[in-house]
């Protein structure tokens, strides 16, 4: 497995940006770029499978598994349900599920190292701004998008867990012989959340538990 190819930073023209609901600028990589990277690394010999999907009132959630060279990574993906403004009717549940599947694929690819450079606090140019975002600007969530950091002094650890934390959770769990289902069940038991939806403080608690070698 060629980690150099997997973790190679994407070119600036492949990093897209959109404005979030809070006015922050969010960076993300499109699904086609992730697929291209996987094809390049694995010579197109990889498999992505949707194992479960759920439809809720406002969003759809899928559980998927990406397998390459005998290594499998599982993650969740989600997408909001698109509704018509006129009567709030669902426009296309199929399209919403496809969007969730793409989100899931990108998250699985992240666990292989694809796009990891987006998750660290490196300077990012903000269009229309007067400089760069840095450690007090944007940080990136596990799905390849960024989220605005909580300003210092206002509970920075309350934000969503970082990709580094998520990877550490699954790596430590694997080192202890836990299955992915085991760590998901453990996270649900501790915080009534799947690992992907923990905040930074909760993720730190899980990591400390796994590092401490507590009996289960």
SSE layout:
Elements: H1 3-6, E1 15-19, E2 25-29, H2 31-42, E3 46-55, E4 59-68, E5 71-80, H3 93-112, E6 124-125, E7 132-133, E8 138-140, E9 146-148, H4 163-175, H5 180-191, H6 200-212
Antiparallel strand pairs: 1-2, 3-4, 4-5, 6-7, 8-9
Helix pairs in contact: 4-6
Write up this protein.
This protein is an alpha+beta fold and about 220 residues long. A 3-stranded antiparallel sheet has the order 3-4-5. Strands 1-2 form a two-stranded antiparallel ribbon. A two-stranded antiparallel sheet has the order 6-7. The longest helix is centred in the middle third of the chain and has 20 residues, at about 95-110. Residues about 120-155 have low confidence and may be disordered. The chain is globular and about 55 Å long. The chain has helices spanning about 5, 30-40, 95-110, 165-175, 180-190, 200-210; strands at about 15-20, 25-30, 45-55, 60-70, 70-80, 125, 130-135, 140, 145-150. The chain has 2 domains: about 10-140, Enolase-like, domain 1 (2-Layer Sandwich), CATH 3.30.390.80; about 150-215.
Tags for this model:
216 residues; alpha+beta; 3-stranded antiparallel beta sheet; two-stranded antiparallel sheet
CATH topology type of the largest domain: Enolase-like, domain 1
**Annotation field: number of helices:** 6
**For the residues shown, what is the average pLDDT?**
78
CATH C-level class of the largest domain is Alpha Beta
Structural class: alpha+beta
**Relevant CATH superfamily of the largest domain:** DNA repair protein Rad52/59/22
How many beta strands in the DSSP annotation? Answer: 9
Assigned CATH architecture of the largest domain: 2-Layer Sandwich
**What topology, given as strand order, has the largest sheet?**
3-4-5
* Domains, number: 2
> Largest sheet, described in full?
3 strands, antiparallel
User: What proportion of the residues form beta strands (DSSP E)?
Assistant: 15-25%
